[in-house]
Amino acid sequence: MGRITLSQAAKWCGGSVDSKYKDITFLGANNDSRKIEKDQLFIALQGERDGHDFIPAALQKGAAAVLCTHCDGDFPAIVVEDTRLALGKIARGERERIGMKVVGITGSVGKSTTKEMVSAVLSSTYKVSKTPANHNNDIGMPMAILTMPEDTEVAVLEMGMNHFREIAYLASIGKPDIAVIINIGTMHIEHLGSMEGILKAKLEILEGMPADGAIILNGDDPLLWNQREELKERAVYFAVRNPEADVTGSDVSHAADRLSFAANTAGKAIPVTLNLEGEHYVLDALAAVTVGVRLGVTPENITKSLGAFRNMEGRQEIFEKNGFTIISDCYNAGPESMTAALTVLGNRAGRRVAVLGDMLELGVCSDAEHYKIGRVAAEKADMLLAYGDHSLRLLYGAITGGMSQDMARAFTDKEKLVQALKQMAKPGDVLLFKGSRGMQMEKVLEKFLED
After folding, report:
1. C-alpha dist (Å) from residue 325 to 174, 321, 338
2. Element at 422 (helix H, strand E)
3. Are residues 117 and 234 in the same domain?
4. pTM greater than 0.90
5. Beta strand extents in 395-449 (DSSP E only)
6. What percent of the chain has pLDDT over 70?
């Protein structure tokens, strides 16, 4: 991350700065006055609370300057009409100044895991920076760019959305040279209307790309595979089931909590072993292989990087505690990822307990999708404890799928859920905790593990 002068940032975003402060510099940006670091630019956003109210606190903690819509006082500031849009323009200017190559990653399920895998593979060869944790929106991604070191050679940017034009906006900032679309699932269908609408929204990533940029797509996804004629030579496909893809996975096997397969590309078979469970991770890894090959990473480095890969916190963490085997996958959930997690549970020995929270943003599809997941739970689990407004739909699906009524419970109160789980679960059980981000299923897990 390089020092940016207020005059340079103002030029990028069309803002104004008092001449006596034009040479003040900042390092990175933050919109949280509680977490602001010395010399950062404080972004006064207008949300549920007005960020301008926290300017004094940010300056007191060491903020170098402020990005704001009005300046009530004498301090270093860039004054703009819209701080959110100005932040994006400043980040775009810094991305262009550094001149790094950018890999943009989007999709309905698995974006974060794929971002981490791609970063791991590329880090064997390049100086890589990436968006951290959940910094995949119109605030987090620009701030992440502004913290990237000046010697960054490749930036891996996760791009999320739940409405049209959000990916287009992120792509206009990040300007990806390579775009990866992992899949088209049902998450966010509430706002986008249909799977075709979700596809359209994901393809907005193309709008920020150069004409010769490569777009790497899941060849096992019918909606993405059907784009091959329109995208022509720009499209590079990876797949497990589709033999016509450019990079294919074969010889998939499970052994001792590991997942092994061969990634076949240009007549070569690259051996991959992941410290993960669940075949859905093969596609994420194939995307990383495809990006790596595109950017000249050697097969040996690809194998080594993925072999050492560890997933992010909250995404399929498997551990032993108090006599239980815990599968913590609480970061987020949609029908596809919920099915994958239940499949991992189903492959475990012992009594299998699914502790599932609602899947959000499914709109009119919510009832049907929760019912379907209940049916999957009946097949993969021995016990279901469901939490949330749609818990009864999960329950009905499980019971009609063959699960005993004594083994299926629905809750709308976290405390009662935890109490019932402590009474029903026994040492030796395997417990899966999963739900959408807003359900905060990690708190259920924390309370369950308390003495």
Report:
1. 41, 7, 18
2. helix 414-424
3. yes
4. no
5. 408-411, 430-434
6. 99
